[in-house]
């Protein structure tokens, strides 16, 4: 019998993008003339505890004391938090449904706002461990249950010791209390979650840094919405590119390196290139960039690199020949849309396709030479592997054929080998 696995997940700044008590303060104190100073005190107490510089119990007591919140404020907070679930957790709801028995939310936050948020994701109420508020007859929060181990320093360790779970335990979180589980030896690995906040004092102690929940699922070979985490795709930005462009790419989760030139050490691994107007790519380096999928050029790309080589390698190019001022956002958005959905709308060298994002399916991209019979071979491969095709698109331009197929999520991965072996294939990619 296989060993059971358990996934111990933090709530604040992990499952959600924010610290809930900080957000509750902004709701409950919005009419307080001293609210900005109080907000800052609460945030300071939060950060001191998360970095291990103040005991959790002291931090919690001070924050609750400053809140001046009531049950109506909690209702507003819950509505707000439901919109602030971390993107990578939100898109992997199917994982939580399939592994409902193994997922535990363990938090120093409060059940009153945690349960309504995580229950949407099939997480069982009996698997939610957190503190509880004490309210008076008027519904005002006046205290919390001090007997709960999670209200004390080292509370997560005490709780896990009491639960005595049998199997391999993996912890995911952003703070010191999450690392303490690893330090205690109760969990097999601690994954520092950095999608929302990166605390260097925690990152340095982690077994693995996970910039998204997709990364955690990927390294543990668990089912996920995205086949390959975006944080593993190297996006190289070259030259005087506006910060607006870089910010858009960072926000979408790609691994960004901003350099003054196309350095040799990045050639074999680069997946995306963003170039400032006037930058060039040496032909020899372009030919060796085997993982390169797309180039975004903030200006006219003519004579700056070989479009013919890009065609032969299946590299989609987006540029702006008229050097429109909007290209600081326009070009990165086109590149992001291609990486996320396979959309080639307004590409310089590929057939122009606009595609919707589909749920509960995998999108496969097959780039090939535009010769007769390719689609027949692609669909024969699908038929041989009993694949259910959800949707299919094909466009051609000059010597390039661009086929996108959305398939059912259940499939044999030997299908990929069959598609790559089709004669005249230029590039094959599983999009998500």
Automatic annotation (TrEMBL):
CDD domains: ACT_3PGDH. The keyword Coiled coil applies. It catalyses: (R)-2-hydroxyglutarate + NAD(+) = 2-oxoglutarate + NADH + H(+); O-phospho-L-serine + H2O = L-serine + phosphate; O-phospho-D-serine + H2O = D-serine + phosphate. The keyword Magnesium applies. Its cofactor is Mg(2+). Pfam families: 2-Hacid_dh, ACT_AHAS_ss, HAD. Keywords: Amino-acid biosynthesis, Coiled coil, Hydrolase, Magnesium, Metal-binding, Serine biosynthesis. Pathway: Amino-acid biosynthesis; L-serine biosynthesis; L-serine from 3-phospho-D-glycerate: step 3/3. Its EC number is 1.1.1.399, 3.1.3.3. It comes from the Bacteria. Residues 363-432 form the ACT domain. Signal peptide: none annotated. Residues 57-84 form a coiled coil. Transmembrane segments: none annotated. Catalyzes the reversible oxidation of 3-phospho-D-glycerate to 3-phosphonooxypyruvate, the first step of the phosphorylated L-serine biosynthesis pathway. Also catalyzes the reversible oxidation of 2-hydroxyglutarate to 2-oxoglutarate. This is D-3-phosphoglycerate dehydrogenase.
């Amino acid at each position: 019998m296989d060993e059971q696995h358990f996934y111990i997940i933090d709530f604040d700044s992990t499952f959600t993008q924010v610290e809930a008590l900080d957000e509750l303060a902004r709701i409950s104190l919005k009419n307080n003339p001293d609210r900005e100073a109080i907000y800052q005190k609460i945030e300071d107490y939060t950060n001191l505890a998360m970095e291990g510089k103040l005991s959790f119990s002291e931090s919690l007591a001070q924050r609750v004391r400053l809140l001046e919140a009531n049950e109506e404020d909690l209702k507003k907070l819950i509505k707000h938090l439901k919109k602030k679930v971390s993107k990578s957790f939100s898109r992997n709801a199917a994982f939580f449904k399939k592994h409902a028995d193994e997922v535990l939310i363990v938090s120093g936050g409060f059940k009153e706002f945690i349960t309504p948020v995580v229950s949407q994701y099939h997480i069982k109420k009996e698997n939610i461990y957190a503190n509880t508020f004490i309210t008076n007859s008027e519904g005002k929060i006046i205290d919390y249950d001090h007997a709960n181990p999670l209200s004390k320093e080292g509370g997560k360790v005490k709780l896990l010791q009491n639960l005595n779970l049998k199997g391999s335990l993996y912890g995911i979180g952003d703070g010191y209390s999450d690392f303490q589980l690893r330090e205690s030896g109760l969990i097999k690995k601690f994954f520092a979650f950095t999608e929302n906040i990166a605390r260097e004092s925690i990152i340095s102690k982690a077994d693995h840094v996970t910039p998204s929940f997709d990364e955690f699922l990927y390294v543990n070979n668990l089912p996920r919405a995205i086949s390959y985490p975006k944080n593993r795709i190297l996006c190289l930005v070259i030259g005087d590119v506006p910060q607006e462009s870089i910010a858009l790419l960072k926000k979408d989760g790609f691994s960004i390196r901003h350099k003054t030139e196309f350095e040799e050490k990045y050639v074999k691994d680069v997946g995306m290139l963003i170039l400032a107007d006037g930058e060039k790519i040496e032909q020899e380096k372009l030919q060796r960039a085997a993982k390169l999928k797309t180039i975004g050029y903030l200006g006219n790309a003519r004579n700056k690199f070989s479009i013919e080589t890009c065609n032969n390698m299946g590299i989609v190019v987006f540029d702006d020949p008229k050097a429109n001022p909007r290209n600081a956002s326009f070009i990165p958005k086109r590149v992001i849309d291609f990486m996320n959905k396979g959309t080639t709308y307004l590409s310089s060298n590929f057939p122009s396709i606009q595609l919707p994002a589909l749920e509960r399916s995998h999108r496969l991209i097959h780039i090939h030479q535009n010769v007769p019979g390719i689609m027949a071979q692609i669909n024969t491969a699908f038929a041989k592997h009993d694949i259910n095709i959800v949707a299919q698109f094909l466009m051609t331009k000059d010597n390039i054929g661009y086929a996108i197929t959305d398939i059912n999520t259940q499939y044999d991965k030997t299908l990929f080998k069959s598609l790559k072996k089709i004669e005249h294939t230029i590039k094959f990619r599983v999009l998500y």
